[in-house]
Amino acid sequence: MAVMAVHQFAQCITCHAWSPDQSMVALCPNNNEVHIYRLVEDKWEKVHVLQKHDQVVSGIDWSTRSNRIVTASHDRNSYVWNLEGSEWVPTLVILRLNRAALCVQWSPKENKFAVGSGAKTVCICYYEQENNWWVSKLIRKRHDSSVTSVSWHPNNILLATTSTDGKCRVFSTFIKGVDAKDSIKGTLSDSKFGELIVQLDLSSSWTFGVKWSPSGNTLAYVGHNSMIYFVDDVGPSPLAQNVVFRDLPLRDVLFVSERTVIGVGFDCNPMVFAADERGIWSFIRYLGERKTASSPSRYGSQFSEAFGKFYGQSKHGVSNDTVDTSRTRGAVHENCINSIIPLGEHGALTRRFSTSGLDGRIVLWDLENEQDILEL
């Protein structure tokens, strides 16, 4: 089994992030605080409590280069925390939001970060040296509902978002004076800030976690209809396909290699998806089991079988049959897994990652002995 360690930190965890050397973890125990724990002699000790927000902290990201923490909250605010001596000092970010901030992520170069919100907008934040504060430029009038997740392309310019309006979108976030002109090539080199590169209308339900592959050539995101979507050649003519599964929906995804994705969600156990030589994606297995079940009869009538296949038809011409999975596996989490993040450098192959969930646990996973996954 791929589980490396299980740690019970609270009754519920809304989000978490690791320090650059993985010696500390920052998490929100479903309130307005951020607790930072350090591993001391095989025990986790609480060393800092970040108290500035007024409502639940919905997003945390810890930068790997500058050792800064950015937080976002339902109180419509975001703070950048810098370690000065032994204290974390907050700097307010001017978001100009009238609804909750729902997610946040540093860009690859860490000169910007993106905040998704319930105000149907995305804030692209950057540092203004002259005024010594963080300001934001807003991407407006594109989303029809709350922005649930954001993900940066490796080129530091393109940003993918998902929303409860059922769509996934890719925007240009080029900011003059912050980004270099040669950082984006090809037909996208002339794109302006906030320009919509592509809108993917593949889901008939809310969409959640979205991630780019290590090369940036493939985009994966999940829907609340127990479907996961894969998009290649993101641009004017994308190639899209989906995989339907019969268990509970996913909430977040992570590329562990260019052709392998781990999905986590309401089923409390990570799911492995992979692409074959033809580029066709399919469900492989749960991390808590070795083989998938193959008996479709245990899931109900022929009507439900046909219903699942009906929803499995991709709007771009690629279809996959409904995936049959087993409920006999043993799950490490006892409630919905709401986030999955890599441990270590974000390279072409991610062997270690962590998950957190509504059960208050953070689980460390290691794929070192999962040869069937590493060989995909």
Automatic annotation (TrEMBL):
Which key words are in the record?
Answer: Actin-binding, Cytoplasm, Cytoskeleton, Repeat, WD repeat
**A GO CC term assigned to this protein in UniProt:** Arp2/3 protein complex
Q: Where is the Anaphase-promoting complex subunit 4-like WD40 domain?
A: 17-88
Tagged with keyword rRNA-binding: no
Gene Ontology biological process: Arp2/3 complex-mediated actin nucleation
Q: What is its main location?
A: cytoplasm
**In which ranges do the WD repeats occur?**
50-91, 140-172
Q: Which Pfam families match?
A: ANAPC4_WD40, WD40
Keyword Glycosyltransferase appears in the UniProt entry: no
> InterPro entries, alphabetically?
Apc4-like_WD40_dom, ARPC1, WD40/YVTN_repeat-like_dom_sf, WD40_repeat_CS, WD40_repeat_dom_sf, WD40_rpt
Q: Name one GO molecular function term.
A: actin filament binding
Compartments reported by the entry: Cytoplasm, Cytoskeleton
Which family is annotated?
Belongs to the WD repeat ARPC1 family.
Role played = Functions as a component of the Arp2/3 complex which is involved in regulation of actin polymerization and together with an activating nucleation-promoting factor (NPF) mediates the formation of branched actin networks. Arp2/3 complex plays a critical role in the control of cell morphogenesis via the modulation of cell polarity development.
Q: How does it assemble?
A: Component of the Arp2/3 complex composed of ARP2, ARP3, ARPC1/p41-ARC, ARPC2/p34-ARC, ARPC3/p21-ARC, ARPC4/p20-ARC and ARPC5/p16-ARC.
Q: What is this protein called?
A: Actin-related protein 2/3 complex subunit
Question: What gene name is listed for this protein?
Answer: ARPCI
